[in-house]
């Protein structure tokens, strides 16, 4: 469906993405490895995916498709069209409003032809000054092909006077504000960049004689790659076909602000983030939660799957038995990323079912990762009571989500977030549960390993969706009238 180039990127019918990026250099049939990597990153984006490869004989080749990686990039006939020892890929998810309206031209990687050769680029995050940049670029003659904020990077590169593509990328990214983990490729190089705050993850791995860049370590494991290190916040790595890795620091130094919600929910529990096991962090969140918000009960149940490690930690710390009181149908998507409220409501029963034999007659503690609109939590509470539970207590493994994310995560507008309208007791009454407690921001910081807690003057993580303190001003949104906490 055609989309207006100057429409605002945060309107309901526009794109907001939570994405996964991946790249491989120095191994035969690199695109096959990229397809496997994207499959392991599918939880980061399920609407569409794309792969670009390069081979000296065939040049750049590109395939972009809607749907799951497994439904597209497993066909031999298709993968044969992506030859070469260098390839990058992207999986994406778009906002509720844009679901079903996204054009294939919005699917990454994006490609640009420059005087020194072509380059393809895949972006995870969100550019908070994209609207202003887009306006400026269009005024100066750029012709946009998509409605994605990420395309600004390609046009900024085209306007740079630098002689090499990595230098042009540095120029372009210095103009960009917000969150970005970028994986890009030229004919001979694989490039990875993280924004100065390192909001989104990006790791470097080794596979045989080749190298891998990935959003998460779980996607290294799937191809038997060895984790080497995180790409640092503000770092650009340029990897050559001969295996050489160069590191650059193109941005002004800044204190890192990694997304703390990656630890709570987005990343897979078998990934390692910043040297910490995501599973172990989530288990520790449950321990902290049990200390902060104890309650007498008979059973600790996770809301599967993302509440599971925290429920295990809660049970261990409280001594209350753990049980799978809710069973998840493994073949449904995650409710947080369902497209409309109506479908979201229906989706709960399709996705989750209560284990009546375990629940009946018990006082149940339900451990979930977050409360966003609250619609899912209400449905789950009803299902648990219908199954004969005597009491329902919610324990939430994140603080109240009261502010939208502008750094690449699909969250509703502020007024649709339950915690923006109600305090904890009002939310408890609205959900109709016997008790409701969220982990404190301090408790969450302790769980992710910040033993000294949150440094209020300069928090070590981005926690804006809980605190309302945005580490990068969402300038496009402010222009549109969004009021930050500081402005309220
Ligand atoms: S606002 Fe929340 S979800 Fe977005 S980057 Fe910050 S912590 Fe992560």
UniProtKB/TrEMBL annotation:
Catalytically driven reaction(s): 5-phospho-beta-D-ribosylamine + L-glutamate + diphosphate = 5-phospho-alpha-D-ribose 1-diphosphate + L-glutamine + H2O
InterPro entries, alphabetized: GATase_2_dom (IPR017932), Ntn_hydrolases_N (IPR029055), PRTase-like (IPR029057), PRTase_dom (IPR000836), PurF (IPR005854), PurF_N (IPR035584)
EC class: transferase
Biological pathway: Purine metabolism; IMP biosynthesis via de novo pathway; N(1)-(5-phospho-D-ribosyl)glycinamide from 5-phospho-alpha-D-ribose 1-diphosphate: step 1/2
Cofactor: [4Fe-4S] cluster; Mg(2+)
Gene Ontology MF, one: magnesium ion binding
Keyword annotations: 4Fe-4S, Glutamine amidotransferase, Glycosyltransferase, Iron, Iron-sulfur, Magnesium, Metal-binding, Purine biosynthesis, Transferase
Gene3D superfamilies: 3.40.50.2020, Glutamine Phosphoribosylpyrophosphate, subunit 1, domain 1
Residues noted as binding Mg(2+) in the record, renumbered to the chain: 306, 368-369
Cofactor comment text: Binds 1 [4Fe-4S] cluster per subunit.
GO annotation terms (biological process): 'de novo' IMP biosynthetic process; purine nucleobase biosynthetic process
EC number: 2.4.2.14
Active site: 19
Binding site for [4Fe-4S] cluster: 259, 405, 462, 465
Limits of the Glutamine amidotransferase type-2 domain: 19-242
Coiled coil segments of this chain: none
Main function: Catalyzes the formation of phosphoribosylamine from phosphoribosylpyrophosphate (PRPP) and glutamine.
Database matches in HAMAP family: PurF
Family per record: In the C-terminal section; belongs to the purine/pyrimidine phosphoribosyltransferase family.
Entry protein name: Amidophosphoribosyltransferase
Species assigned in the record: Rhodovulum bhavnagarense
